[in-house]
């Protein structure tokens, strides 16, 4: 994972994992056999915002773990037939740069 970009969900409540403070989660295509990091489009820089057309608004500064937001949206996060990361079938995109994709995985959940 060194020296590469990924797609992160960055508004989770900070929590210590194995003694290290975690403040986000990397998004990966996942099956029982394989896990693959979702790649942002070429030209992206750290901090570029990933959006899904039709889902506007400002993200919560920090998700409330009691509301279980992640557990509600995660079942609708998938890699499609073309390797594109989607939410409810709508592609993850970075405005002016392109779509977020999985290099080799198809039709798999995002976790």
Question: Would you mind describing this structure in some detail?
Answer:
With 111 residues, the chain is mainly β. The chain has one helix at 69-73, and strands at 8-9, 15-17, 20-22, 25-26, 28-30, 35-37, 51-52, 77-79, 85-87, 90-94, 98-99, 108-109. Strands 7, 8, 9, 10, 11 and 12 form a six-stranded antiparallel sheet that branches. It has a two-stranded antiparallel ribbon with strand order 1-4. It starts with 7 loop residues before the first strand and ends with a strand.
Task: Give me the secondary-structure topology.
Layout: E1 8-9, E2 15-17, E3 20-22, E4 25-26, E5 28-30, E6 35-37, E7 51-52, H1 69-73, E8 77-79, E9 85-87, E10 90-94, E11 98-99, E12 108-109
Antiparallel strand pairs: 1-4, 2-3, 5-6, 7-10, 8-9, 8-12, 9-10, 10-11
Cα radius of gyration in angstroms: 14 Å
H/E order of the elements?
EEEEEEEHEEEEE
Detail the poorly predicted runs: none
3D shape: globular
Our measurement of the CA-to-CA distance between the termini, rounded to an integer number of angstroms, reads 17 Å
Mean pLDDT: 93
Largest sheet geometry: 6 strands, antiparallel
By DSSP (H or I, 4+ residues per run), the number of helices equals: 1
> Structural class of the secondary elements?
mainly beta
Task: Kindly state the number of beta strands.
Answer: 12
Q: What percent of residues are in strands?
A: 25-35%
> Helicity level, as a percent range?
under 10%
């Amino acid at each position: 994972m060194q020296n590469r970009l990924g797609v992160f969900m960055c508004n989770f409540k900070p929590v210590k994992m194995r003694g290290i403070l975690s403040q986000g989660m990397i998004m990966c295509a996942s099956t029982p056999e394989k896990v693959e990091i979702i790649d942002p489009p070429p030209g992206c820089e750290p901090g570029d915002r990933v959006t899904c057309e039709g889902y506007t608004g400002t993200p919560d500064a920090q998700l409330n773990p009691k509301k279980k937001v992640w557990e509600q949206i995660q079942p609708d996060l998938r890699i499609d037939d073309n390797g594109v990361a989607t939410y409810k079938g709508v592609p993850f995109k970075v405005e002016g740069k392109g779509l977020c994709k999985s290099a080799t995985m198809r039709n798999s959940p995002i976790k």
